[in-house]
From TrEMBL:
Cofactor mode of binding and number, as noted: Binds 1 zinc ion per subunit.
Name of the protein in question: tRNA-specific adenosine deaminase
Residues annotated as domain CMP/dCMP-type deaminase: 1-134
Binding-site list for Zn(2+): H58, C88, C91
Lineage, highest ranks first: Bacteria, Bacillati, Actinomycetota, Coriobacteriia, Eggerthellales
Length: 156
């Protein structure tokens, strides 16, 4: 999550809302459930929605696309997405489509959160893939970064 926070700060320097994400890959042997290799960061991204004027320019969305490119696979099994803000419906949808193992996020998002706050996409039994969501990791730090950003912006 520290690395995701670094990405959020880099995004802020570009004039973006400070949100960052990394994808960690740890392949697991399906038979023994033991790790086959050390976990490694395979993707990192910050929010780029303003810079690229792309409605899909969310940090975790970009990080998942990078992770797929790195693994040469659309399926992100063995991957955990770390993101500073609770994912929206689109990003939670991509996590479902990519079959991620887990998402760890910092601050909850009362206006758009889809992994526990407004929706629980990760544990919707109607969908063909469920994954673990772990909220609140360095949550105060992630929330404070956003709060300070919007307070500064309002003063301008
Ligand atoms: Zn999103």
């Amino acid at each position: 999550m520290r690395l995701a926070i670094d990405e959020a700060r880099r995004a802020e320097e570009l004039g973006e809302v400070p949100i960052g994400a990394v994808v960690v890959y740890e392949p697991i042997d399906p038979a023994t459930r033991r790790p086959l290799a050390e976990p490694q960061v395979i993707a990192r991204a910050g929010n780029l929605r303003e810079t690229t004027q792309d409605p899909a320019g969310h940090a975790e969305f970009l990080a998942m696309k990078q992770a797929s490119a790195a693994l040469g696979a659309w399926r992100l099994a063995g991957c955990t997405v770390y993101v500073t803000l609770e994912p929206c419906i689109m990003c939670a949808g991509l996590m479902h489509q990519a079959r991620v193992d887990r998402c760890v996020y910092g601050a909850p998002d009362p206006k758009a959160g889809a992994l526990g706050t407004l929706y629980r996409i990760n544990e919707d039994e109607r969908l063909n893939h469920n994954f673990t969501a772990t909220p609140g990791v360095l949550g105060n730090e992630c929330a404070e970064m956003l709060r300070a950003f919007f307070a500064r912006r309002r003063r301008k």
